[in-house]
Design goal:
It contains 4 helices and 5 strands; from the N terminus they run E-H-E-H-H-E-H-E-E. It is α+β, with helices and mostly antiparallel strands. The longest helix is centred in the middle third of the chain and has 27 residues.
C-alpha cells in the first residue's frame, strides 16, 4: 500500500469545515489532513486539530546548554592559565558573568531559530498535491492516506461540496 496525497478544493469556509468533519467521521486521523488557504483565518476556524506547540522548550534548552558551556569554558581557561594579579582570586566571578551572559543568550537565540524551523515543519521534503488557485481565494483540504482508502477519502471530500479533487498524479473533476 502506497501513500498518496489528495487535495479537495472549496470556495467557501463552511464546505471546507464540513470536509474536515466528514474525514473525521470516515475514520481518518486528524494528524493526516490539513487546511490550506491563502486567506488568514483564526486558528481552529475550520474545526481542525490544533497541534500543541513546543517552541518554548528550544530556547530553554539552549540557554541551559549555553550557560553550562560558558561556566566550563571560563572556569577551565582560568584554571589552566592562572594569572594572579594583585593577590586577587584566580576565578573571578565578575569577569565570568559577561561571557556567561553572552553565551547563554547566543545559544538561546540559535536554538530558537532552529526550533522555529522545526515547529514550522520546514523544509517540507514530502511534496503533497498543491493547486495555485489556493492563493487566489480557494480553500484546500489536503489529506495523506494509503491507496486502499483513496475512494473513501474522495467520497468524503465530494460529499462535502468539493469543486475539484486532485490526487497525487491523477485528477478527478466533479
Amino acid at each position: 500500500m502506497s501513500k498518496l496525497s489528495i487535495l479537495g478544493l472549496y470556495d467557501n469556509p463552511d464546505s471546507a469545515a464540513d470536509a474536515l468533519d466528514a474525514l473525521s467521521e470516515s475514520g481518518f486521523d486528524s494528524n493526516n489532513f490539513d487546511v490550506l488557504t491563502g486567506t488568514p483565518y483564526p486558528e481552529g476556524a475550520f474545526g481542525e486539530h490544533t497541534p500543541q506547540h513546543r517552541l518554548f522548550r528550544f530556547p530553554l534548552f539552549g540557554a541551559i546548554v549555553g550557560l553550562t558551556l560558558s561556566i566550563f569554558l571560563t572556569t577551565t581557561t582560568q584554571v589552566v592559565y592562572p594569572l594572579v594579579t594583585g593577590g586577587k582570586p584566580i576565578l573571578s566571578i565578575f569577569a565570568m558573568l559577561v561571557i556567561m551572559y553572552e553565551m547563554t543568550m547566543l545559544s538561546a537565540v540559535v536554538t530558537t531559530v532552529i526550533g522555529i524551523l522545526f515547529e514550522s515543519r520546514l523544509p517540507n521534503i514530502s511534496m503533497n498535491v498543491y493547486d495555485s488557485r489556493i492563493t487566489e481565494g480557494l480553500i484546500g483540504v489536503s489529506l495523506v492516506c494509503t491507496s486502499d482508502k483513496k475512494e473513501q477519502a474522495e467520497k468524503a471530500l465530494k460529499d462535502s461540496g468539493a469543486i475539484e479533487i486532485k490526487s497525487s498524479g491523477k485528477q478527478s473533476d466533479f
